[in-house]
Amino acid sequence: MVLNNEQYLVTILTEITPSLDGYRVIYQADEIDMHDFYCARLIEVKASNGTVSRVTLLDNLISKNEPCAVLEDNVLTVPLFDTILQIDLETATIIRCVDCENWGGLEQIFEINQGYLFKGECDIFYYDKMLNQVWRFGGRDILARVTEEKCFWIEKDLIHCRDWAGWHYVLDMDGNTISEFREDTTN
User: Fold this and answer.
1) Residue 179 host element (H or E)
2) Is pTM, for the whole model, over 0.85?
3) Distance between CA 177 and CA 179 in Å, rounded?
């Protein structure tokens, strides 16, 4: 994934047990054994002044779904499995780190309404810019489909999601359920 603004060009790769040569680890989940399986978000930051920094975030599991980060000014907001980080790109340091209790892991991030919407495997979360959780929504089953059919999208200020059991949920931007209906029983 590539993000850019006037100050930075940010390239993010999500890899399983990659070589970390040339990268500085700035976050590592406590339970990771570097001699075993781990996942990494490899982040390369090119600043407008010509400097380049390479940092990585390590966790047991990390979704490869995109978008996997939001860039605002000099701050990069990145979800891992059950952690949300904000990185100051000027200093390449973590300025905020919060736990997000969820089942199945965080998969995507979207910037909306002066905050962030996180789509997880089982839940949708909305956090403000300071990473305080504002609301959470969960369906009857995991928010995934057996087919290639889209299971999550934002359209006309409404959040749509479908679960494994065939339910379609429509939420407003405040997390209120506008409607829910059964689309099918065959997934």
Assistant:
1) strand 177-182
2) yes
3) 6
Bridging pattern class, strands 24-28 and 52-59: parallel
Long-range contacts of 71-76 (CB under 8 A, 24+ apart): 71/3, 71/4, 71/5, 71/8, 71/10, 72/5, 72/111, 73/5, 73/7, 74/7, 74/8, 76/3, 76/10, 76/43, 76/45
Counting other chains too, the contacts that 111-114 makes at CB distance below 8 Å and 24 or more residues apart are 111/70, 111/72, 112/154, 112/173, 113/173
- Model confidence pLDDT, tens digit, residues 154-184: 999 999 999 999 999 999 999 999 999 998 6
What one-character DSSP code corresponds to residue 185? S
3-state secondary structure of 173: coil
178 CB burial (10 A radius; 0-12, 13-18, 19+): exposed
CB-CB neighbours of 106 under 10 Å: 24
Written as one letter, the residue type at 126 is: Y
